[in-house]
Amino acid sequence: MATRIVLGWREWVALPELGVARLRAKVDSGARSSALHVDSQWTFYERGAPWVGFRLSPGHGAGIVETAAPVFDEREVTDSGGHVTRRVFVHTTLMLAGVEREIEINLSDRRGMLFPLLLGRTALARVFTVDPARSFLHGRHPLGFAAVPLESWQ
């Protein structure tokens, strides 16, 4: 088994398929799924398949990103306060610590939270481990930084 990459409890990530070059993420191995803050979202159909359009503000002068993705799933999620909400899930590419991998993210209202992205344990599985005493171990990479596809990382 390959050595896992150590992450801090917060890291900079990129979501290139969604047009997000830099985004602060809270790395939370206690959360099962990953949640992305969106300012607004709407559903539509493309060639008979459900899609979701959404707007988000990555922060730090990045402006507003408006994008769309196919809906992967829709299911109930229980937040840390015990509140259950129905959320839309999409698949997208995560670029973090020189690794590129496909993850699923639910779209959520995280207004008031310090981090627009909560990176849960399913996104971390088999590749990353977390050192909760450290943060921002992998720098602030721009979109297009050299990431290695997961299948070649073994």
From TrEMBL:
One of its GO terms (molecular function) is peptidase activity. It comes from the Bacteria. GO terms for biological process: proteolysis. Residues 6-140 form the Retropepsin-like aspartic endopeptidase domain. Keywords: Hydrolase, Protease. Signal peptide: none annotated. PANTHER family: ATP-DEPENDENT ZINC PROTEASE DOMAIN-CONTAINING PROTEIN-RELATED (PTHR38037:SF2), ZN_PROTEASE DOMAIN-CONTAINING PROTEIN (PTHR38037). This is ATP-dependent zinc protease.
